[in-house]
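Hi V.,

You were right to ask for the full record rather than a summary. Here it is.
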Amino acid sequence: MLRVRALNILCFLVVSYDVITSIPLDGDVKIEGNDLNEHEHRALKRVKRSTADVEGDPHFETLDGYEYDFEGRCSYYVLRDCRNLTQRAFDIIANIVPRGEKDTPSSVITSVSVEIEGKYSIIMEEDGSTTVNGNSVEKPLDLIDNGEIEIHSQLDRNVTISVPKFNLTVSWLGLEVHHLRVDLTKPEFKGKVCGLLGNYDGNMDNDFLKPDGSKPESMRDFAKSWRASCPNRG
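Predicted structure:
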């Protein structure tokens, strides 16, 4: 069941397993019914960017600078290589679970999975523990594939994955913070990535697209299109 509620500058969209809250700067967004074409996404920041952030319960800021809240209940592709190659360079998946009271829905990221070229599956848990293809990472610095991938584990349980050949850095700090940061600076990926963190083409107005590049029929349709898995779905 879909409910839409608009309160001044806050547009609150609830769906069965995915909740998206769009907070525009000037309160000009209006959501009517269940159609993306009936409301206008406002740009919050018009600056050149290469960093995306997801923090708290969870607050998203895309690579192009669009800010929104996403109260998901599944695992989602937050960013992936979408160049239609035989083998993707990377996939970044966030597992989002509900936290909080029934009347005040809230969610947090509890783990982050980074898949590199189909060869390596790196999973960073909420407590900072990390595995590569199922094997625990114990050292402060772990070099994989002759340094093609670097995993830095710090005392504060912050974990950073660096992939120099893609100019890709993924940082994760779980526990109370639940902060995921993605840095991507390689020009060949501009406009060639996709997911909940947008397409990195410099235009935040088209960040809400489905995996095939089409415009979703609704925000629920957008959320469902980026599910990687949903084990808790009834």
